[in-house]
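Suppose a colleague, Dr. K., hands you the sequence of a protein chain of 92 amino acids and asks what its three-dimensional shape might be. Before reaching for any lab equipment, you can write down a predicted structure in token form. Begin with the sequence itself:
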Amino acid sequence: MPMQHVDGENKGKTVLFALSTCGWCKKTRMLLEDLGVEYDYIYVDLLEGEERQEIIQQVEKWNSQLSFPTLVIDDKETIVGFNEDKVREILG
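The predicted structure, expressed as tokens, is then:
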């Protein structure tokens, strides 16, 4: 299961690492959609085997605590957890 793409306004490369069962992840997705931002997301808990290991290593590069949601913007800015103010500041 590769990244899922959501169309919207391109505000830079925006990638959301999430869990399918996580309420804060869902709120982050809803916020991105409210802002009309183009983004990709992946539900890490739905991956298996090598694919899962690869994605977990990617997340750990951005967030050593491996918590969700982890939102990565343009491969340089990371927002860990649901942080509406920071998301709006960067992508709003």
